[in-house]
Design goal:
The protein contains three helices and five strands, in the order αβαβαβββ. The protein is α+β, with helices and mostly antiparallel strands. The longest helix is centred in the middle third of the chain and has 11 residues.
């Protein structure tokens, strides 16, 4: 159950969507809420996101972008989600590079 999952201070939910699906009015219907941990790295989240969306292509072909401080910010794969400033409920897009 998501509510009890969030009682652990290391747990959060993030909302992941491929950027190609985040256009137009369907955006609010295409996000998948994923369980994450503040101490997981950006790379771990990217791999979990790619697997969740069943993207079969090369994992190096993607990056994760979130919205922080009023602008798009790339998630550093080497830092933890906490170090990247990711908060519970953060919107995150998978972007092909």
């Amino acid at each position: 159950m998501a509510i009890s999952y969030l009682h652990d201070p290391n747990h959060l939910l993030v909302h992941i969507v491929p950027a190609s699906l985040a256009e137009g009015e369907v955006e609010t219907f295409t996000y998948i809420a994923m369980r994450a941990k503040f101490d997981m790295t950006g790379l771990e989240l990217k791999e979990a996101s790619i697997n969740t969306w069943n993207l079969k292509e090369d994992k190096n072909r993607y990056k994760l972008i979130t919205w922080l401080g009023g602008q798009d910010v790339e998630i550093n794969e080497e830092k933890t989600l906490d170090e990247n400033g990711i908060k519970n409920g953060a919107p995150i897009q998978i972007v092909a590079v």
